[in-house]
Amino acid sequence: MDNTTRLQYLSAMGIDVWVPRIIAENTEIEAMASDAAKDSWSSLHTEMRACQQCDLCQTRQQVVIGAGNQHADYMWITEAPGLEEEQQGLPFADDSAELLTEMLRAMQLSREQVYITHIVKCRPPEDRDPKAQELVACDAFLQRQIALIQPKVLIAVGRIAAHKLLQSKAPLADLRGIEHQFSGVPLITMYHPAYLLRSLTEKSKAWQDMQMALTLLNKYKK
């Protein structure tokens, strides 16, 4: 009897079994891979464009799905789309685009080598923060994107994305510089490029975060 079957039998009998963290995390990753095998980008995109699970469907111009390499090692996840992103249907299409490109270049990467998406796929009116219902409505879409890509490292860009993914309200300054986990995938947090444009003195911290991302990839890439 394999270990998975044994655990299923024990669970059916009402017996709680302690599972080492590394096994639990590997099981999560295997489950994501299994789900991804049954899913497809085509069906996911169709469902996202037709989504009416929250009120943002009434005000959006278009759904901003995400862009980049669908087999990327790095997946960058940021907040909700802004006006320029909604108009172009692409993440980081605003004033922060050039800085993002430079940040990626410093990591010897391009936008075509990573995958970038939002925690909420439609633009909230007047670029307000996403509401709880809107975050919940898009959660399954984000989970399916992660399962399809199977990234080695997740990068939460900005306070809103970090709070959603980590289920935390701690200041971003306290969350960065730490290796977190999300669905069994290593995750780090990073200041949003738009914030860095307003706070030039924080750019050195962004470089520290990028170096940490590179270190994590070397650690987990097989």
TrEMBL record:
<dbReference type="InterPro" id="IPR036895">
    <property type="entry name" value="Uracil-DNA_glycosylase-like_sf"/>
</dbReference>
<keyword id="KW-0227">DNA damage</keyword>
<keyword id="KW-0479">Metal-binding</keyword>
<dbReference type="Pfam" id="PF03167">
    <property type="entry name" value="UDG"/>
</dbReference>
<dbReference type="InterPro" id="IPR005273">
    <property type="entry name" value="Ura-DNA_glyco_family4"/>
</dbReference>
<dbReference type="InterPro" id="IPR051536">
    <property type="entry name" value="UDG_Type-4/5"/>
</dbReference>
<keyword id="KW-0411">Iron-sulfur</keyword>
<dbReference type="GO" id="GO:0004844">
    <property type="term" value="F:uracil DNA N-glycosylase activity"/>
</dbReference>
<keyword id="KW-0004">4Fe-4S</keyword>
<dbReference type="GO" id="GO:0046872">
    <property type="term" value="F:metal ion binding"/>
</dbReference>
<keyword id="KW-0378">Hydrolase</keyword>
<protein>
    <recommendedName>
        <fullName>Type-4 uracil-DNA glycosylase</fullName>
        <ecNumber>3.2.2.27</ecNumber>
    </recommendedName>
</protein>
<comment type="similarity">
    <text>Belongs to the uracil-DNA glycosylase (UDG) superfamily. Type 4 (UDGa) family.</text>
</comment>
<dbReference type="InterPro" id="IPR005122">
    <property type="entry name" value="Uracil-DNA_glycosylase-like"/>
</dbReference>
<keyword id="KW-0408">Iron</keyword>
<dbReference type="GO" id="GO:0051539">
    <property type="term" value="F:4 iron, 4 sulfur cluster binding"/>
</dbReference>
<dbReference type="GO" id="GO:0006281">
    <property type="term" value="P:DNA repair"/>
</dbReference>
<feature type="domain" description="Uracil-DNA glycosylase-like">
    <location>
        <begin position="65"/>
        <end position="211"/>
    </location>
</feature>
<keyword id="KW-0234">DNA repair</keyword>
